[in-house]
Design brief:
Elements (H helix, E strand, L loop, with lengths): L3 E7 L4 E6 L5 E7 L4 E3 L2 E3 L2 H16 L4 E8 L4 E4 L18 H11 L2 H8 L10 H11 L1 H5 L3 E4 H10 L4 E2 H4 L6 E2 L4 E2 L1 H5 L10 E2 L4 E4 L2 H7 L6 E3 L2 E2 H13 L4 E6 L3 E6 L14 E5 L5 E7 L1 H16 L9 H10 L2 E4 L15 E4 L2 E4 H5 L11 H22 L7 E6 L5 H9 L6 E4 L4 H15 L14 E3 L8 H14 L3
Parallel strand pairs: 1-6, 6-14, 6-15, 9-12, 16-23, 23-24
Antiparallel strand pairs: 1-2, 2-3, 4-5, 7-8, 10-11, 13-14, 16-17, 17-19, 18-19, 20-21, 21-22, 24-25
Helix pairs in contact: 10-16, 11-14, 14-15
């Protein structure tokens, strides 16, 4: 290979250092998970340990591959306050931390009503600290003295860029990802950003994801064995990064990406920004693509729900297998309309913030915690296969709502990637529920890392994104479509229970 590209891909669960060759084929990858570092009773990111690992892995990979560029992609809603010594001035708290209703009430009392902010910033009301502005507000309240020592406030990808290059920057996809910090109507920092009084701490210019932040520092070059001429791009939000391979192959509109994992993220690249009145107050929002175009987005913790409920069913039956898809069983569950599994295990995180995790059978509620503790077990849980059928149907119900809320139109292709693309039950039911849309499974195993590598190649070569489409192939395998007439009446009852929050 003429040169190689290193990608640091930071998810909430898994961290990865990958290497791509000059035609965007992944040549190597290293993986690790990091437990939270507990500080003041809070789960925080262990930035120091992560940096040590990234450095060690890059040093090892540099022995084999001619790395000329590094790109960073990270999960959203995270920032780092940097002190004058160039290190974190206060803990980097997990965005999953829930500070309580009083905190959220204080935030909106100070910065404006939730629906007003949603209309202007594209950011919905979410629990926890899943909005960057709420994270900043929490840091100011919780660590006022240490926050006062902050000299730089950097978004998460750019923090890592700063650690590797010593340079600071800001970039559009991260500023605009459910942050409350960017005014989507006026295309400038929002009134919330101004009210937080952090503008002076943040880089003012928004750059492109493929712009060069700088070359790595001499110190970092010595630690890794890389040349000090290695460039580092500006960084990119992971969900937006996963769109880039499809933009290169399919253009910038006309499809909806159904990215499934811990977070299921439905992204519809659209031509214009704006909410219908009935959408305000719902968990639907706008990301900003790498090309500064609007991406209507909906999320829910589908992977977390599947894993948590699966472990519960496995424990009840002392099994560890996932039952295969039996269409006859699923049609029976749909037709009977007796068993419904409902979200949300993490309240306020998805499309049904008023719903609490439970199974409803024959009109009776069985809360998740009661089932877990063995206090109240629904009869359906005695049937292993039926339990999983209810779970998979629930995930399809949530996905359908996400697709609808992102403005899916008839004829648009639905591209499913991530963990659920391996589940025949999920894909078969989803396809059957969408008579006017073709559902495809992609073969991209790590789309966010590939997208980040593409930004680095653009920086190295000066090529445009469409020029890179010849470097790689994506297999779009269509899911066989079979009508499921029982689905619509079942979904009507399921939605009624989920939207009311109780049976």
């Amino acid at each position: 290979m003429e040169y190689a590209i290193a990608v640091i891909d930071i998810g909430m669960t898994n961290k990865k250092v990958a290497v791509y060759d000059d035609v965007l084929k992944q040549a190597d990858a290293r993986y690790r998970t990091f437990p939270p570092k507990m500080i003041d009773g809070l789960e925080t990111h262990d930035l120091e340990l992560m940096e040590t690992w990234f450095t060690e892995e890059l040093a090892d990979l540099a022995k084999t591959y001619p790395i000329k560029a590094i790109a960073v992609t990270t999960h959203g809603a995270t920032f780092v306050c940097v002190g004058k010594d160039g290190k974190p001035a206060l803990p980097c708290v997990y965005y999953t931390h829930e500070p309580g209703e009083d905190f959220h009430n204080r935030f909106y009392a100070r910065f404006g009503a939730a629906e007003t902010l949603q209309a202007r910033t594209g950011t919905p009301y979410l629990k926890g600290l899943i909005n960057t502005a709420k994270g900043i507000f929490f840091a100011r309240e919780g660590y006022p003295k240490r926050f006062g020592h902050t000299r730089l406030l950097l978004q998460y990808p750019q923090y890592w860029g700063f650690r590797f290059t010593g340079k600071t920057g800001a970039e559009g996809t991260y500023m605009g990802c459910h942050s409350y910090l960017w005014d989507q109507l006026d295309h400038k920092p929002s009134p919330v950003a101004e009210g937080l009084e952090v503008a002076a701490l943040m880089p003012q210019q928004l750059n492109n994801s493929w712009d060069i932040l700088g070359t790595i520092t001499e110190e970092f070059a010595q630690k890794t064995g890389l040349s000090s001429e290695v460039i580092l791009t500006m960084g990119i939000h992971d969900s937006n990064s996963s769109l880039l391979p499809h933009f290169a192959k399919k253009g910038e509109t006309g499809f909806v990406l159904n990215s499934t994992g811990t977070w299921c993220v439905t992204m519809n690249p659209v031509k214009t920004y704006g909410f219908a009145p009935e959408e305000l107050g719902k968990v639907v929002f706008f990301n900003i693509s790498a090309f500064r175009t609007p991406v209507k987005t909906a999320i829910f913790l589908g992977g977390q729900e599947f894993e948590t409920w699966s472990k519960l069913f496995m424990a009840l039956h002392r099994r560890n297998d996932i039952p295969p898809y039996d269409p006859a069983l699923y049609c029976s569950v749909l037709q009977e309309q007796r068993v419904f599994l409902l979200p949300e295990l993490t309240p306020g995180s998805g499309q049904f913030p008023g719903s609490h995790a439970r199974i409803v059978e024959d009109g009776k509620d069985y809360p998740f915690e009661a089932i877990r503790k063995g206090l109240s077990i629904p009869p359906c849980c005695k049937n292993y296969e039926k339990s999983f059928a209810a779970l998979r149907l629930s995930l399809v119900m949530q996905s359908l709502t996400g697709l609808e809320r992102t403005g899916m139109v008839p004829g648009a292709g639905i591209f499913t990637e991530g963990g659920f693309r391996k589940d025949p039950a999920y894909n078969g039911i989803l396809s059957g529920a969408l008579p006017d849309n073709r559902v495809f499974l992609t073969d991209i195993a790590e789309a966010s890392a590939l997208g980040a590598a593409m930004t680095a190649k653009m920086a190295l070569t000066g090529k445009r994104l469409p020029d890179l489409s010849r470097d790689f192939e994506i297999a779009y395998r269509e899911v066989e479509k079979k009508g499921i007439p029982e689905l619509l009446p079942y979904r009507k009852v399921w939605l009624g229970a989920a939207e009311q929050g109780k049976w």
